[in-house]
């Protein structure tokens, strides 16, 4: 190989590496936004380790339910003699394609709150996936994580203002609560880094929607058939309707593997809720609010608008 050809390959290789390192240009949003589906995961301080554990656990069960993930790939492998310029063009094409249609099955994003991560999902039902994980953990009693606390599916998102939430939930809740469907239910509401929503007003509004959809829907704080989870983080409201919320210890993967105790009413005080979450106070109780009014509200003490 001539010296000129060698120099040409070196220059091409430099451009290839530069193009690879600048791949962030094609990445989409890295934060939780309205319109996304996924899983909210709370942890005990170590968010990086929590993210790794969560992705491993989610991929393990997603493969069982949906099969192996089909990763975006070029047409076959490249030859060792393939010109670096051609390899660079393929790399750029792959990056551009992954930004448009071929997103990964799971993508870790910033949630907007400390000790909480958001895993965006693609082409799956996060509520069914999380329920399957918890069912398996509850049955096997096999611990599969060290720092993950709760795994809450997010099947709907809207702006975190009361009028937006009421409008969105009026349609969103229909499959579970609109006549002829009905169920016993409770509302699990939590707000992080948000000061513009009043807990009691939100819960009353949601209960009013459920009552209008079918008057036969009844509140049950002890053992409801369905739980409406409403998690507000900054300007985004994350919503889901789940089964077995009490049985699966409020979707806490550390608690669900423990031996079952005699059933008792679940009307936790803030101190008891902190114990459920592994002794970690919620993000809205920290001093990292930068002067915002901090809501000290915790989950569903007396809800359902009664």
Automatic annotation (TrEMBL):
GO terms for molecular function: RNA binding. Keywords: RNA-binding. Residues 282-306 have a biased composition (Acidic residues). Residues 1-24, 258-306 are annotated as: Disordered. PROSITE patterns: THUMP. CDD domains: THUMP_THUMPD1_like. The keyword RNA-binding applies. GO terms for biological process: tRNA modification. Residues 136-243 form the THUMP domain. Residues 10-24 have a biased composition (Basic residues). Pfam families: THUMP (PF02926). Interacts with NAT10. Binds tRNA. Belongs to the THUMPD1 family. Functions as a tRNA-binding adapter to mediate NAT10-dependent tRNA acetylation modifying cytidine to N4-acetylcytidine (ac4C). This is THUMP domain-containing protein 1. It comes from Oryzias sinensis (Chinese medaka).
